Amino acid sequence: CSTCPANQISKADFSGCQNCADGSGYAATSKSCELCDVGFYSSGGAACSPCGTGKVAISKGLSECVACTAGKFKKDGATCGDCAKGSSSAAGVESCTPCGAGKVATSTGSSICTACTAGKYKKDDSTCEPCAKGSYSTEGSASCSTCTKPGEVPKADATGCQPCSAGTYASDAVCKTCAPGYYSSSGATVCTACPANNVVPTGASPCLKCPKNQELSATGCAPCASGSVSAEGENKCKACPAGLCPGDGVCEPCSGVKTGAAITALLS
């Protein structure tokens, strides 16, 4: 009788040799085919072999190993484990990869890391944290930044910077309203005082010097009421005394048609 080649056994009638079935291999101790153990496989008459990179065999007698799915890693020859928070994996890998700059994985078993949204920053591999007041961030930021352009402050949602509107100025990373008698244009860092006899109603408009016979209102200069007068730049109307009528910015003796205080004086 002849000895069978390696990894083969005798046929039932001892007329020749044959390969072990897929999923099994020749065992020298028993001189028979035995099922491949977990973590091993065989096919085509080959001996049982350990699973390759990123692949496992979860039970005995398998003819092939299967790759660990995305979000998992090869823990041992028979087990795929979930990636921890803050890491991810593609299918068929030996280990998980920590999230890169500005990206996080908030749960176990993640197949990808996601970028922190604008207005937040990467606190650690599993947490995005909102930017502190006075700072901002763009998508995928590892940290928040302060606005560096003069006259700009962070937006309300901390996603970028914007200039302070007219009538306000940038101070301590917020826009503050100009004081009465001061004004500013968009993107200002200080407010400017109005010249003498000039005022600003809202802080946003240029300083106003009302013409004769007009006064300052909430929206600008408006005509004086009947019987009142103002000089240029006074910005406040005053009623003419009895016997006088509004003239060219001053009260003067009435002539012709009498109006306002003059009519009242004549009727009294």
Largest sheet: 2 strands, antiparallel
With helices defined by DSSP (H or I, 4 residues minimum), what is the helix count?
A: 1
Rounded radius of gyration (Å): 44 Å
Shape: rod-shaped
Q: Poorly predicted ranges (pLDDT <50, ≥5 residues)? A: 257-268
How many distinct beta strands? 28
Helix content: under 10%
| Derived structural class | mainly beta
Overall pLDDT, averaged? Answer: 88
The order of strands across the largest sheet is: 1-2
Distance between the termini: 152 Å
Order of helices and strands: EEEEEEEEEEEEEEEEEEEEEEEEEEEEH
Q: In percent terms, what proportion of residues is strand?
A: 25-35%
Helices, strands, pairings?
Layout (H helix, E strand, L loop, with lengths): L7 E3 L6 E3 L4 E4 L4 E4 L4 E2 L7 E2 L4 E2 L9 E2 L4 E5 L2 E4 L4 E2 L8 E2 L4 E2 L9 E2 L4 E5 L2 E4 L21 E3 L6 E3 L4 E4 L2 E4 L4 E2 L8 E2 L20 E3 L4 E3 L4 E2 L8 E2 L4 E3 L4 E3 L7 H7 L1
Antiparallel strand pairs: 1-2, 3-4, 5-6, 7-8, 9-10, 11-12, 13-14, 15-16, 17-18, 19-20, 21-22, 23-24, 25-26, 27-28
